[in-house]
């Protein structure tokens, strides 16, 4: 089944996309190739193969949460380019008054 520029125009109208006649002529064979590829994939999928999200089975890949000590305030601020009142100092970006 080959898509005509009129078919693509109907689809574009449903999607509320304005296309020029040149774009319709250019997209028709491309969409036809995409539909042919989808048809090939549909032929491969068999009823006895369950749909999956991954090709291999996955087990829980997350590590368990462990409470660990973090940096203290002085150590964290030691690497900052600027600090003020025990906080990181950053440039103002919104122009708001304090």
UniProtKB/TrEMBL annotation:
Q: Which domain of life is it from?
A: Bacteria
Instruction: Fetch the SUPFAM superfamilies from UniProt.
Output: Glu-tRNAGln amidotransferase C subunit (SSF141000)
Enzyme class label: ligase
Say yes or no: keyword Transmembrane helix present.
Answer: no
- Give me the reactions it catalyses: L-aspartyl-tRNA(Asn) + L-glutamine + ATP + H2O = L-asparaginyl-tRNA(Asn) + L-glutamate + ADP + phosphate + 2 H(+); L-glutamyl-tRNA(Gln) + L-glutamine + ATP + H2O = L-glutaminyl-tRNA(Gln) + L-glutamate + ADP + phosphate + H(+)
- GO biological process terms, semicolon-separated: glutaminyl-tRNAGln biosynthesis via transamidation; regulation of translational fidelity; translation
EC numbers, comma separated: 6.3.5.-
InterPro entries for this protein? Asp/Glu-ADT_sf_sub_c, GatC
Which keywords does the record carry?
A: ATP-binding, Ligase, Nucleotide-binding, Protein biosynthesis, Transferase
Give the record's subunit note. Heterotrimer of A, B and C subunits.
Identify this protein by name: Aspartyl/glutamyl-tRNA(Asn/Gln) amidotransferase subunit C
The organism named in the record is Microlunatus kandeliicorticis
